[in-house]
Every structure is written in structure tokens, then in C-alpha cells.
Fold these 4 entries.
Entry 1:
Amino acid sequence: MKVSVHAVNFTVDKKLVDFVQERMDKLEKYYDKVVSADVFLKVEKTSDKENKIAEVKINVPGDDFLVKKQCKTFEEAVELSAESLQRMLVKRKEKISSHI
């Protein structure tokens, strides 16, 4: 799967990009028709500790799934986003297989 990582208002390090790539690749276990993923990492300028936002858009044939999570760390936000997407992909797979 092609994963694009976009860092908004900061520079992203290689370790974080590798983590995102690895986590998104795991989603293919649940639904193998995923075309690509766009991951937007943003830092909100607030006094709140949970100012890291991960917005993940997954492209599958005929649909797009978008999940947005806000946490203390990017890793946690990406992990929560991936878990939500995992549930969505499993539901979609079940829905499609029930129509066949």
C-alpha cells in the first residue's frame, strides 16, 4: 500500500514515518483492497497537552475512510486511528462478502 505522510507546520523524523508506514501496512491484513493512505500529522498551538492530531484517509475502491484522532503523542494518535480504520475495514469486508 502506498502511504503518504504529510507533516503540517513541523518536520517529521524518519522514525515516525517508519512507524506510520508499518502501522498502515498492518491494515492490509483486514482488507486487502486498500489502494493508498494519506496521513496528516498536525500540531495544534494550544496549552492543552493533547495537541497532536493524526488524520488518516484510506482509499479503497468505491470509498474513502477518514479518521481523525487527537492525543499527547503522534504514535498514540496514529495507533488509535489505525484501530478505528481496522474496525471500518472489517465491517466493509463483511458487508461486501455478505452480498456475494
Entry 2:
Amino acid sequence: MFNTLRSRLLAISRPVTLTMAGALLTLNVAAILYGVFARYIAGGAPIWTDELSRFLIIATVMLAAGAVWSEGGHMRVGLLEKLLPTSFARLLNVYQWLLTLLIAAGGAWVSYRYALSVSMFTTSGLGISRTVPLLSLPVGFLLLTWHVLLYGPAPLKTVEDNL
């Protein structure tokens, strides 16, 4: 029952986070196109389009990272897992899962503390607190942690699994 709940939550969480990342990517393309239009057609682009574009691309990547990880979309070498005996391969999978979980949770904590520490500064183009765009980092790391927890210490998917 616990495994089916985990797999259902993962099956729901992946498309939701990828849809949110896709929406941010669409917004990013719109901001870039507006900047290009303003610069070359209207005669001058506002400074905020470049800054918004940078923040949106970072937020897009951070939101999608967990879903892409659970689908096996990140580049990695899985040869060692195939060459090891089954028991050692299972141990390696648990080690990789724990290490990823630790790094993702640690990244969430460190990036959250950093985002809060720069709250007194504002961005040059948008004029908002730097904390606002930097909060995409801990949110992304938390989503990665969530996806890693839901996926569990199972072997990661490979390109051959998706064919």
C-alpha cells in the first residue's frame, strides 16, 4: 500500500512540477521576445527584461530538476550498476539515493538561509527584494528532495528503459 501511494504521489507530482516549469519557460520566452521587440522595434528595452529572464530560467531549471531526476533524465553513467553483482548493485543504489537525498536537503537548507540573508538588498532591474527570486532555489531543492524521497532507493531509469 505504501509503495502504491508513493508511486501515485510521484505520478501526480512529476507532471505538476513539469507543467509549472513549462509555464515559467513560456513566461521567460515572452519576456525575452518583449525585450527584443522593445530593443529593436521600439528603440529601447527596459532593463527588467534581462533580469526577469535570468531569474525565470533559474526558477524553471530548479522546478524541473526533481521531476527530471525521477524520470532518469539527468546525465549519469550507470555502467557500474550493471557490472556489479546484484547485492552490491543494490547497495550502490541505496548509497546513491542517500547521497542525493542529503545533497538535495542540504541544498534546500543552505539556499533558504542565503535567500533570507539578502532580504535587505533589491534587484537592479525589477526593484524587488533579492529574496523573492532566490526563493526558487530552496523550493527547487525541496521539490528534488520530495521526488527523491518518493522514488526511493530503487535503481534509476536509464535511456534504454525509456525506449
Entry 3:
Amino acid sequence: MEKEFIQPETVAEITGLSLGALAQLRYTGQGPRFYKPTKRTVLYKRHEVIEWVESTARMRTGAESYA
């Protein structure tokens, strides 16, 4: 059974984003939902990361409308 919660390093592998880019997305509220059980711990749910990536699908470049 796969782990429900994953660390930012795993999110970076799944999405191809850097850890810095993920931190910036957390700061601006534009990335996948995340959890902070402690002051220094950041966790994500694997299925929410995948859903977030899938929600960014586009039909063509330059299009602002999402599928």
C-alpha cells in the first residue's frame, strides 16, 4: 500500500518542479494543498498532488482556459 502522505522531495520527483518552486507555490497559495503538522514539516497527500497536476491540463499553448 502506498503512503498517503509524501514529502516535498517526492512531490518534486512527481511534478518535475524544484523544491524552491514548490516553496514558492506554497507561499503564493497556487500549488497543491499541503499540511504542516509541525513548524518545519511539510507534507502532501499523493492523490492531491496528482489531482492538482491534472487540473492544470490545457488544450493548447497560450490558452488560459483549463480543461
Entry 4:
Amino acid sequence: MPLTADADIKTLLENARTIAMIGASDRPNRPSYGVMAKLQAHGYRVIPVNPQITGEHVHGEFVFRDLSQLGDPIDIVDIFRNSAAAGEAVDQAIAAGAKAVWMQLGVVNEEAAARAEAAGLQVVMDRCPAIDIPRLGVAKIGPAADE
């Protein structure tokens, strides 16, 4: 079952450090652009993923084509794609060894969520971390305890 309890979602957000954002945009009028900035301001490292702008930079981070190019462990894959395209993003997240997938507001894909959960990933659907972080009182993210 996807995470729906506030306490579970808060714990996921508190334990995350690195978020890969599939569908990140370099256009300031796009929701992903603002959400990425808010997540970075809260202390997360956000790695943008978008094949249309690969090699560019968004908010100081290099944009990757897909998750297979990332060398760093991924705590959460934040999916800014439509519900039908979320399945491919979830499959990439599973292959990349991510710990969780987060489907943005309006993004619901039960089949993809079931695949993610079967692979051991936590799943959040139809929510936005930039809304949930202040609502849940998630403290600003600092360095991991082992850093």
C-alpha cells in the first residue's frame, strides 16, 4: 500500500537526502522548477532528470538523461510525469536501486506502485513534497549522521 499516514510520509522525508526529479524543467513557469528550488532550500540534493534538456543545468545541478546515469544512491525519485508515463519512471527507479518513488499531485498509477512495492520501494502517490514538508513540520535537512 502506498504511504498515506502523515507519520510515515514525514519519516520518509526526514530520512531522505538525495532526490532524483524525473521531469525536472528549466522553465520557471513549470511546477517542477519551483518544487526543485524549494526542496534544495530545505537541504535536499535534487538531481534533475529530463532527456529533453540533458547536459543543461537547473538550479546549479547537471541534468541527466535517465536514472541509469546517476552514480549516487537515490533516496526518493520524484516523478513529474503524467500517470501513464509514471510506470517507466518507476521501472527506472527500481533498476537504479532507489528507496522510494513519489508521484506528484495528480499522478496515480496503481500498477507501477505495485511493481515498486514488490521491489521493496516505498511509494507515495498524488502528493507534493513541497506541500507536505511544511505541513508536516519536517525539519531542514542537514548532513547524514555518517558524513
